[in-house]
Structure formats: C-alpha cells, structure tokens
Amino acid sequence: MNKQERIQTIQTIRKQMQPRRILSVVFTGGAYSATHFFDQSIWSILVFLCALVISGVMLSRESFEISRVSDSTRAKRLIRLRSIMGFGIISLMLLLIITTERRGDTDMSLLYVAGFMLLGIGIETIIENRIRRADPEQPMSKEYR
C-alpha cells in the first residue's frame, strides 16, 4: 500500500471512530467538571478515573487499527506508543491539576499545563521521526488529520 492509500485508510478508520471519540471526550470532560463542581468528592474522582480508562481503551483500539496499515513491526509498536504516551501525558496532567487544586495550589496548575504541553510536543516529535525511519511510507499524524 502506498502512502496515499494509507492516508485514505487511516482517515476512514478515524471517521468510523469519531462518534465514539466525541462521546468519550464529552464523558471525560463532564467527569472532570464534576470534580470541580462537587468539591472533588471521592465519587466524582472515581467517575473521572473511569472516564479516563474508557478513553484509553478507545484510543488504544484506534491506534491498533491505524498501526495495522504499516508493514513494519517497529513502526506498528511506535504508532501504538505514540498514542499511549499522548494519552498518558494528558491523563497525568489532568490528575495533577485536580490534586493541586484540591491542595489549594492553583498556581502550580498553570506550570503543569505548560510543562506537560512541552513534554508532549517533544515526545510526539521524537516518536514521529522514529516512525518515519522505521517505515518511510507511513503517513505522519499531521498528514491524515
């Protein structure tokens, strides 16, 4: 499969997963908001953690489907790693924001957001370069978004 066919296949996969992704984002965002509106009670935090788990499972399924397009075993692993790392960074950032706000240290939340954004950009760039070296025909994420 050439690069253009892979892009079309990946876009089809993403279109099929889009309603589930939107539902996951709405559920996670609602659970995150509930932690703020209900003074971060234990049940709202548990609902938020469940929402993160559901989002992670859906993201792993999508990354597995996208990785099937590649012929290279190394590229497949890197594609899955890219999505896991991105999800992990976002989840960790949200959890740290909740815990800092629970302690009353909201100034640290901004620092966490900035730090995790830079970390995410750096990791994404490194993994994209490794995917390009492992499988030159594999489209990068910016090419199929």
Task: Characterize the structure shown.
The chain has helices at residues 3-37, 42-67, 73-103, 107-134, 141-144. With 145 residues, the chain is mainly α. The chain has 5 helices and no strands. It is elongated. The chain starts with a helix and ends with a helix.
Shape: elongated
Q: Give the tally of β-strands.
A: 0
- Secondary-structure element order, N to C: HHHHH
Q: Roughly how many Å apart are the termini?
A: 19 Å
Question: In DSSP terms, counting alpha (H) and pi (I) runs of 4 or more, how many helices?
Answer: 5
CA-atom Rg in angstroms: 17 Å
Most strands sheet: none
**Structural class assignment:** mainly alpha
β-sheet strand percentage: under 5%
The mean pLDDT is 87
Question: What characteristics describe this protein?
Answer:
145 residues; 0% strand
Give the SSE map.
Blueprint (H helix, E strand, L loop, with lengths): L2 H35 L4 H26 L5 H31 L3 H28 L6 H4 L1
Helix pairs in contact: 1-2, 2-3, 3-4
What's the short version?
This protein has helices at 3-37, 42-67, 73-103, 107-134, 141-144. It has 145 residues and is mainly alpha-helical. The chain is elongated and about 50 Å long.
